[in-house]
Structures are given as structure tokens and as C-alpha cells.
């Protein structure tokens, strides 16, 4: 295709909907989907790819929007089909020597098993004998035909797949064999008749015999599969946009089910579970591709192919090296061998575990294939978070009941469940579950998401369970053959006869493939030990992982612009945060310092009738607050500490009004003394609020209760002064919460500056304390330019800002209707998890700009939990904030994502 030609437009200026494999390349994924683009790329590289063509995502979009294919599509498909027939020297479905094709989905982003595929299109009653004659193998022809009817019936005609499975099982039972390869031609011919009867009974029509009708219906079914429930659920889980559509690849068939010198397999250029280089993958003789990923028959390791077919093995190894060097990444490859001839059916950048992602990124740097900036883009904060999860304590007492293939690492413990419905149901009730199946299929996606981990008795590292689990970062053990899974009786039976029933606790180790009965204790992750300063990881493999994490984190820290602080309320959390790389405290919530016995002191302050009582309560609280800040400033010496003054609503410090009312009523009924409780109840009634989160809290509390904020400011100032006089370097920042107007901030600031000046004079120090505010109300964001006149810094409280922008009460809505909103696609993700860029984000952007327009040196940060969310960190980098703040364990994630955001923006600028 000429470089000057728009790939979406033909030379006649009409939209082009079909591309031959020779026309595309790997950069056209938006148009050709990942599979089509990569088939074209392999064709361009001269690799053995069966000829074919791709129907574009644009055709799918037209179909999904209008309900019918584009008017020009049929003619374009016919044109490309004619060219394919001429090239192959045979026609689709012709009786004596039929051309057969596969019809396969292929979206821009990999969605393994979520959309539809149909193989052997073109077979019919008229052509099956011709295929047998040409192949010299009658069994192969009838096996291919039964596969077509089974896949077509389920995928295109909507027949329950269990009906075909039951008929196949009955055929094997009648024959007295365990696997389908032991069925002969006569058995398969009878099975074809059974399958056709199922189609007729279930659909009211016969299985279509016209090969072009088969192909057209299959293409339409692939388009439709974009919007199946499982595909939509997977897209929500992986945050894939719903408007991309899928391409459809029509490829001439090559056959792996032609006997022992044929087969099909999946290969990885590196181990997707560990990242180690070597020969990784699965191979299945005398099979078609879907047999491998479905896990119906257990495969042999790819290395065994060397002894089965050395010529094909050597060629495959060379092609794998070519593809990895070309794509500069781990490649996932599907191939078929047809009577000793190797064919490449697909390649893509392979999904990998979190540990493999870090190892592979650094390996590729060492090989000179990518630089450090690209290595940083190859890993994510989500993957780093997975590496920080605990792992099983291998020294603990445990009962091993089996071993399978370590498909996706992690330590998962939960109650055994044997179907997806139960997994979802129990999970929603708060139970942790392990989904146990013979093998999973795309319909199990709901249960896989709900489960802590997945265990299957069939399949390998390339089975559906393994591939999907790795993509989701979910612990998975596959192919545990010694465990017998009976989903009907809901039992798992071990080799020695031990029975695990539904509800029994099991533990699975996705790093070793081991399965245990009962709960196995866990120990900290070696990556967490590294971040806490204990470099030894306890295992050679883990040490290698820690080194990879260290290298990438070091580079991220060098290039990032955003600083990362911690949300920490005590010295212990502050010290841990500092070990994790925090560059200060972005949020110290002083309300957490008023729990336990101090709550009664605050209660006395709020309910005090006289000024003397209020002053006595404040005097009692002052030394306690000062001690809190002394510890905090010591732990964070030399780094900024942002202290938020008391923020929560009054009801958090007062007795529960219902409990108090009951107590008074009971005392009255028993004629017992209750004057104090009655007085307290009257006071609580007076202060009771219908919506306390929008009531007397934050700056309003400081203005209504004289001396409260002044006491806290004095405690901060005195603690800082003592630290400074002890040759320390305290860097306190005082933050006033819930400001909605500059006048509130001005009044509190004036009082705070007076108190600070008194302390400075008394202690003979210059504290250089700064005063700022949280921006957590829409009005504060909209008037940020005015508020900046009295603020040294802004810290965006995105938790409350999200609540007030959306009109959500977080404590209520997440449990009530968020699930429905996510399922209906109203949310792609909860706005409390990732910042709502269009709504909340636009206020952050405009407030940051307005604040800096008033005060160019205004420091800007964020202290809501969005500060540790990967997607949100990129947004805060883009908006120009100075720092993010998050909980201590999310600090490494924020550091990594801040580096990725900087590297990404530098890459965009250079382009």
C-alpha cells in the first residue's frame, strides 16, 4: 500500500473494509485489530502464514451501529475470496477438493477467549468426502466436520454447547475410549449425524450446507460477539473502551488434526510466568488450535516437540527469535504443523505476570533491545502492587494434596466452589473463594473475577484459565491432573482419596503449582522486604526479581517530576512511609489522634457550658497533641509534614443518640438517677445533624468552637520549636480543611499567625511554618483564585471533592448502586478509585491554574487516595501538581507511575 494513501480510504475515495494479509502491518491495530495487524506483519517478514484477509473494525462499527453490514462489504469480501481461491487453486467448499477457512475475531487489544472463532468453514455433506480423498484420511475429514458443526452450532446458531459435549461423551463412552482421538471415522460420521440433529432440534433449521452462507453467518457472529456479556465484562475489567469493535480474520485452514505428524501449539519466547528465557509453551499432536487453549486434553511441553518433529521445532525456534527481536518483547505465538509443515497462525505481545514483566523489561535492556525509558513503560503500578502481596510461608506446617502447573503467581486462600455462580454469590457475601473447574471457558469470567484464585485439573500455561488469570493478575494453578474434579457433585478428590467438598478451605500457590488443604500462613513479599530495607528476599529467584524492581524504581525516581508523600497519622506509619520512599507527609489527619480516652476530652470540649470549662479541656489536650507532633517531626526530620486541623463532623465525637436515648428511657422506667445522661442527651439533640458530612466540620468547627484550632496550631508550633532547638529540621505545613470561601481561611490564618508568632518569640526561633488549605468543595475549586490570596499551598482532597461533585455519600452508594452502575457501563471504574477526569478532574485542573495565576509559587498537591492510583497519578502529572500523597503501602506504586508519567510525556514531546 503506498505510504501516501490513508489506510481507511481506497484510491477511489470510498471506505475500504477488507485488507489482504499482504497489505497491512503491525501499526494498523486500530483498523485491522491485533490479530490481523500481526498476521500482516508476519507475512511481511516472510514467515509461513496461511493466506487470508481481514475485515476491518470499521465494518464492525457500522454493523454494531446500524444492525447490518456496510453495503459494500459483501462485494469486497467476494473480491478477496476470489483472489484467495485463485492463490490456493481451489474454491471455498467445492466438492472434490474444498478450500476451508477459519473465521476468527481480533480486536485491537487482546481479549483471550472472550470473542468467537469458527474453524473449518466450507465443509458440508457434499465436500467432506472430497476432503477425505485429498487428505487420504477419512477420519480427519469427519473429525473436521464434527468440529465445524459443534463450533458453528454453539457460536453462530446459539445452541447450548453442553448438548454437543454430552453427545461427544456418549460417543466415547459407547466406544469405551477416554479421548476423542480414539474415535474412528465411523464413530465420527455417526457423531456428525447426532450433531446435525441437535442443530435441527434446537434451531428449527438444518445445518447450513452453502459454504458462503456459513462464512457470512460466522462473520456476523464474530461482530455480535463484541457485545456479549462476557466480552463487556472483560472490557470493564481490563478498562478496554467499548467502541473499538473487532476485526474479523478469514484465513485459509491448515490442519493439525491430520495424524501424529500434525499438531498445534502455543509458544512463548520467554516464560510468561517468570520471565526466564527458554523453551516455553504447549503442544498437542493430532489436534486443532482450540483444543490447546480450551484445556480439553492435556498437552505436552513445547520442548517435547524437538523429539516429535525436530525440523519443525528448529524452524519454530528460529521464528521465535526473529519475532522477539522484531517486536522487542515477549511474544505469544500460535502455530500449527500440517504433516511436517510449520504454519504461523498468530503472534502478539504476550500477557505476563507482574514478576515476569519486571524481569523481562530489564533483560531486554541488558540485551540492547530497549532503553531504560522503554523498560519503565513496560511495567505498571498495578503489577508492582501485585508483587507486594504476601506469599505462602513455605516453612509453615501444611498439607499438600496435589500439584499442577504454576500458571499465574500469588498466594490464594479461600473456600472451594465449583461454578461461577456460586463464586460470585459467596464473594458478594464477603467470603473468599477458590474457583475449581476441570477447565475454564469464557463463560466462567464472572467467577474468575470474584475468586481469589483459580484451580483447574486440565490445561497448561496457555489454557484459557492461565491466559485470563495472568491478564487479571489472579493466582492460578492449571493442569493438576492428579486431582479429580466433579462439578456435578461439587467435590474434588485427591490421588490418595481425600475429598474436598464445596466450602472446604484450600490454598493454591501460583508460583509453585502446589495445592494445599486448609489455610496456609503467609509471609511478607520479598519486594516489600526490599522497600523496607531488607534486600535479602529468601530465594535466588526472588533476589533476581528484587534486583529488577530496584533497577526500574531507581530509573523512575531519577526521571519523575512529581514528588510522593504519605498519608500518615503517627510516627510508626511515618517511619514506614519513609522506608518506602516517601518524601514527606502530605496528610496527617489529627482526628485520628483523638480516639480512645481522648475522645472523652473532645466530648467535654464540645459540650462545655462555660468558657472556663472549654479552656480546661483545651489545656488538657494541648500537651497530648504536642507529643503527637514531636514524634512525627522526629520521624520525618528534614521532610515536609502537612498537618490537617480537626476535620470530621461532631457526631464522631459524641455519644450515639440512639444508645443515649435508650439509656435515658431505661433509667426513667426504673426511676434511677439520670440527670447527667439527660443533660447530655439534650446537648446531643441540639447538635444533631441530618447530614453531618455537610454540616459542622472542618473550618466551620474551628470557627464555632473558639480556641480549638488555636490549640492545635500551638501544639504544632511548640513541637516544631523544640525540634529546631534540638538541631532538628522540622518542616511543618498547617492545612485548614473544608474551606469554601476565602473569608474563612483569612480568619483562621490570622489566628494561626498570631499563635505562631507567640511561640516563635517565646522560643527564640524562626519556624517558617506555611499555611494552606484543602480544596475539597466545588466552591473552593471555582474560587481558587481568591482563596490563593491567603494560602501558601493547596492540597486537593479528592475523596470529598468526588462526593460533593457527584452528590454521592461514599459510605452509602458504593454498597447500594455502584455495582449496577459498573455493570451498566455508566462507570468504567468507580470515581473513588480513579479520578473522574471530566468532572472532578476539570475542577482540579481549573483550580490549579487559577491558584497559580494569583500566586505563581503556590505549592499544589493531592492527598485523597487517588494519589496512589496509577491512572490518577498520570493525570496529576499532566495538570502540573507538585506532589501526590497516599497511604504508605501505595508509595512505591505512586513513585513508579510518577516516573512512567514523566517518561511518557518526554516521549510525546520528542515525537
UniProtKB/TrEMBL annotation:
Keywords: ATP-binding, Kinase, Magnesium, Metal-binding, Nucleotide-binding, Pyruvate, Transferase. Its cofactor is Mg(2+). Its EC number is 2.7.9.1. One of its GO terms (molecular function) is pyruvate, phosphate dikinase activity. Pfam families: PEP-utilizers (PF00391), PEP-utilizers_C (PF02896), PPDK_N (PF01326). It catalyses: pyruvate + phosphate + ATP = phosphoenolpyruvate + AMP + diphosphate + H(+). Gene3D superfamilies: 1.20.80.30, ATP-grasp fold, A domain, ATP-grasp fold, B domain, Phosphoenolpyruvate-binding domains, Phosphohistidine domain, Pyruvate Phosphate Dikinase, domain 2. Residues 30-67, 71-298, 305-355 form the Pyruvate phosphate dikinase AMP/ATP-binding domain. Residues 547-898 form the PEP-utilising enzyme C-terminal domain. Residues 431-513 form the PEP-utilising enzyme mobile domain. NCBIfam families: PRK05878.1, pyru_phos_dikin. PANTHER family: PHOSPHOENOLPYRUVATE DIKINASE-RELATED, PYRUVATE, PHOSPHATE DIKINASE 1, CHLOROPLASTIC. Belongs to the PEP-utilizing enzyme family. This is Pyruvate, phosphate dikinase. The gene is ppdK.
